[in-house]
Amino acid sequence: EHIQAIMDGHNATVNGIREEIELQGLKLLGVVPQDDGVYECDCAGKPTSQLPADSPVKKALYQILDNLNL
């Protein structure tokens, strides 16, 4: 059984984290990139569900959901 990991794409050590994930036998479902839209929603008190469909975060999360094969 595999444990899936999700990581934030703006981390400066992304490659090191990917290597560690592989060493631990984990499966990386995807990378969620940094997106200023999330910050803007947070500051405005709006839910991130209101991000546009072409938002990098929204695209990445939908890809992760697809990778789950639910």
Molecular structure report:
With 70 residues, the chain is an alpha+beta fold. It is 44% helix and 16% strand. The protein has 3 helices and 2 strands. It has helices spanning 14-23, 36-44, 56-67, and strands at residues 4-8, 27-32. Strands 1-2 form a two-stranded parallel sheet. Strand 1 (4-8), helix 1 (14-23) and strand 2 form a beta-alpha-beta unit. The mean pLDDT is 80.
Low-confidence stretches: none
Strand order of the largest sheet: 1-2
Looking at the structure, what is the overall shape? elongated
Question: So how many helices?
Answer: 3
Radius of gyration: 14 Å
Mean pLDDT: 80
Largest sheet: 2 strands, parallel
First and last CA, distance: 16 Å
Helix content: 40-55%
Which H/E pattern describes the elements? EHEHH
SS strand fraction: 15-25%
Supply the helix-strand structural class: alpha+beta
Number of strands: 2
List the helices and strands and how they pair.
Blueprint: E1 4-8, H1 14-23, E2 27-32, H2 36-44, H3 56-67
Parallel strand pairs: 1-2
Briefly, what is this?
This protein is an alpha+beta fold.
Q: What labels describe this entry?
A:
44% helix, alpha+beta, 2 strands, 70 residues, two-stranded parallel sheet
